[in-house]
Amino acid sequence: MPHITLPDGDALYYEEHGSGRPLIMVAGLGGIGAYWAPQIAPFAEHFRVILHDHRGTGQSSRSQIDYSVDQMAADTLALMDALGIEQADFVGHSTGASMAQAIAADHPERLGRIILASGWTKADGFFRRCFETRKQLLLTAGPEAYVKATPLFLHPSWWVRDNIDAIEGGKSGIYGGDHDIGIMTSRIDALLAFDRTADLPKIPHEVLVMGVANDHLTPAYFSEALAKAIPNARLSIMSDGAHAASQVFPDEFNAIALAFLTGDQA
Questions:
Q1: H or E segment to which residue 211 belongs
Q2: What is the pLDDT along the chain (266 residues), one digit of tens a residue?
């Protein structure tokens, strides 16, 4: 299984699919590259797709460090360096969208076109309450309860209803697994501390901000704010699919994203 060694000696698991211009696809808080399973084949027809498990998740090193979005962004840049990638297009979902903001602001030359999917600007009262609740679940009820609650935050109610047997059977790998409480609470703290709003007007890239009307974890008003603040951004709001719309309606998500990335917008 492919890994790269980070500057501090930790290992980062990654996968590559397809060929062509590099496209980095970065998952959210769960941190698992396999989140992008519905996107891999169609995107790999056009790009060299690179996925990775965030440090602290999946098959990457489970390090007890102070996690931050800047640290996660630095790990992604280290992966690009190790693979000899000077510049790549970037699709970030949720936490991945925050990492994209950090890289675009601090290292603009490393990114081409950017998609910010179900991202946010900075924690507000709603966001803070959601993530503090998830953190409290970890601390008081443990990882099993945290994983059991996760679909309620990520998916539409009807999707949970229709897929409850698969969810309860543990057949979905998108929520991560084997959660370490210390790592996950530190990662949640990283999201609550994230704030790059002052840098958004300086981002020079072509950006597609993708939100979802019924996203009840990072509401669509965050996407509207991102699109308004970034000079060369355009906004696309899906009507359904909640926070995991790329999983719930992959064909719609893929069509919107690929049209932007390949320059085929109508």
A1: strand 207-212
A2: 699 999 999 999 999 999 999 999 999 999 999 999 999 999 999 999 999 999 999 999 999 999 999 999 999 999 999 999 999 999 999 999 999 999 999 999 999 999 999 999 999 999 999 999 999 999 999 998 998 999 999 999 999 999 998 888 765 556 656 689 999 999 999 999 999 999 999 999 999 999 999 999 999 999 999 999 999 999 999 999 999 999 999 999 999 999 999 997 54
**113, 208 contact by CB (below 8 A):** yes
> Could you give phi then psi for residue 21, rounded to 5 degrees?
-65, 135
Neighbours of 221 (CB within 10 A): 14
CATH of the domain at 109: 3.40.50.1820
- Full-prediction pTM beyond 0.85? yes
Name the domain count of the chain.
1
Task: Identify the domain containing residue 99 by its residue range.
Answer: 3-262
